[in-house]
Amino acid sequence: MTKIYAVLLLSCLFIALQAQTPLRYSRVEISLQEKSLQALAELGIDADHGLLAGAGRSVVLELSDLEINLVQKAGFDYRVLIPDLSDTIVTWENRPIWYVKISDNPGTDENEPEMMYTALHHAREPNSASQMIYYMWYLLENYATNPEIQYIVNNSELFFVPCVNPDGYVYNETTNPDGFGYWRKNRRNNGDGTYGVDLNRNYGYFWGLNNSGSSPSTSSETYRGPAPFSEPETRMMRDFCLAHNFLFTLNCHTSGNLFIYPWAYSNVPADSALVKFARLFTRENNYRTGTNLETLNYYVNGNSDDWMLGEAGIFAFTPEVGTTGFWPMPNEIDGLNKDNMWQNLSCALSMLKFGIVQESGDNFILQQNGTLSFSLTRYGFQSGPLTVRLKPLSGQIVSPPASQVFDIQQFATVDLSFPYSISADASSGDELLFQIELDNGSLSWIDTLYKRYDILTQTNNLFTDQADNTDKWFGDWGTTDESYVSGPSSFTDSPGGPYLPFTNSILIMADPLNIPADAQNVYMQFFTRWFIGPSLDYAQVRAYDDNGGNQALCGRYTRNGSGNPQPAEPLYAGLQDEWVEERMSLNEFKGQSIYISFELISNSTAEYDGFYFDDLSIVYTDTVSNTQTVVPLDRFVLRQNQPNPASGFTTVAWENRGSYSGDASLLVFNALGEIVAERAVNLSIQNQLQIETRDWPAGLYTYLIRTANEQTQPMKMSVMH
Fold first, then answer.
1. In CATH, what number is assigned to the domain containing residue 34?
2. Is 482 designated active site?
3. Predicted structure pTM score
4. What is the tens place of the pLDDT at every residue in 267-321?
5. Within 13 Å, how many C-alpha atoms sit on residue 580's CB side?
6. Which entry of 112, 320, 582, 599 is annotated as an active-site residue?
7. 8 belongs to a structural domain
8. How many structural domains compose the chain?
């Protein structure tokens, strides 16, 4: 079967990969009963890449017509197994490698931007393929109704290689038909009783650089093969890449919830664009990003990403899906597939005219007249104007719709603001909704902003520091003018250079911070950036009380540590090369005196730049209104509804990390901010609720859980029928 056509005008093309060779090549088996391999090598034939068969009595080689003529003249007995490898090059066990093309005209090269998705370089990682197939079906099934999918498919050519290693995959299927086969490599007969080459160590860029990034031992799981591109699988991938102009490749593996970019053979990011793209692609699944050393704490040489970038000029990444090993449980697979949807879609969108709008302000509107601030960043390779529009949705907002147009360079960010005006009859505590839209001329992305009108609120500063000096602190950190948000300096753990191995450093407030018992919405905000060893080293922000207790604080950019040797607490590790605005809730310390500290701990011999922060402030609000404050994520987490998109029913689940109990409400809003569903829940006994959506119009909705005084961060759900 060469073509499969999906319904509704969208087609999907299956083709076997073929290597491009200037001469006709054949696969031949040469007898060694009368003559030796040495005699064959003396003819000028590369004999050490062959497959020894029949206990060494013959060797299988891929030879040109000229080489076959030399073999014949030298008196070797041989037989031709495959007459013309230019028609089909197959694996050691004679299997083709198939690719799938998804585009609006897959049988035609329309000179559109191209990208490639691959899976199963390693045979024991089936979820790398399942998430890809889920994504492929999503493109096909939603093409007729989803404008974003139409935009991608109509303006690009997407290539998928679901199984780079079919021999190894079939071997696992044969030995373990119910799953849990752990064969990793391909099925080359190494001639010494061992089988297999690690295909992700067999690519030709810095192949065999050292024996730690790959192994020369045939029995090793990371055996790199006898030569670069010695394996038919990697040769096919090489020639396929060189025959196209791929902008991106996602070479999917499992597991670890990681997103890795070159270089793998060294610890230097190959291009600053990789770091920016990685941050964009992982904004939904929060995978840890970085080089191999930063994410996995070891080097690799001869891998796919390094060759694709270094030789073919492709921005190549390796997603490592999931955290439950190579064979996740069946009930985990659907969630893991969905975790990678934004990653796959945003990578394709970045080939086109694409940007991201982010809001810069708080969840509260504190004045009747003011401005809402945003930033626009262009990520797409295609240039052209991007229009940002703000439209009021709530009746209390009397300001008219407004728009601004920008034509900026790739990765450039521009700040923008829109004025607003609230009617005089609006009440403190009212929920105000705005629609924010980004229009690239062919497609619009629309989101809803939720604001709480809190006109009676007054903001109070408890503590501020612009990082000009360390007068308000004790410890061994200092100021630096190397990098800062507001001049002339910022705080860092190691001014003037990287932090030293096996060191602990701290910066702690000199005086206690007294938080009023009646304070509302107490939080600390600061700007930060960091470069810290990913697996062993870490930085934390901690709060110490007068009784000797202390705890790590959770922020927007913290992640939980690995537990060994990192604590299983909120911390910072890896690379964040640009300044970001961090925020941490201090609501649980109301009525207490605490000390805030910044700490960096090194458990390794590695040396990195360390942790920076600037423009720190701690504020709270006094209010006479009954305003719902937002529950911090370290206390209560509202999960993504499943399934999403929903059709007839969907289930909303949550994780109660604090002491929340009693009655609450699950609220669902449509795009206009109208409540379409309100369900009572009991937080003492429930952690999920099913909602019927069969009668709702297709579209985008928002949901949250609200108690008498608090509510969760809102989540998005979509409904399709």
1. 3.30.70.790
2. no
3. 0.64
4. 889 999 999 999 999 988 888 899 999 888 899 999 999 999 999 999 999 999 9
5. 17
6. 320
7. no
8. 5
